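Running this now, will post back.
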Amino acid sequence: MSKNKNSLKNLLSAEAIQSFAAALSGLEPQEMRKAKELYLRNAITELKSEKRQYKASWITMGLHLLIPIFWPMLFGAQKQARIELEEYKERISNALEVWKDDLGSSYYPLQNLLESVSNEK
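Update: finished.
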């Protein structure tokens, strides 16, 4: 995957989310909602970027598909990338569910945004 891979993985780790939530203590509820919404929007943006880079990597590896000896490696890499992208989507979805009440009316637009990014071909 890409250099954003670690950024996205770190952004969505349980430790990062707990640390972020702890940093919000003391904020007004409206400010807390805005911060959580921004956090999730940034995670969705990172996921979208990661998906685009995944697609672009197949263009650069396309020539290797002409040589059968590379097939197992390329198909293994493709499968691993798809697994990671699905994991990132699930983590964002989990955070959405945990913060559903805190997000209020922002929940459904964020959920729709995540689904649209996830369903992009």
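DSSP finds six helices and no strands in the chain. More later if anyone needs it.
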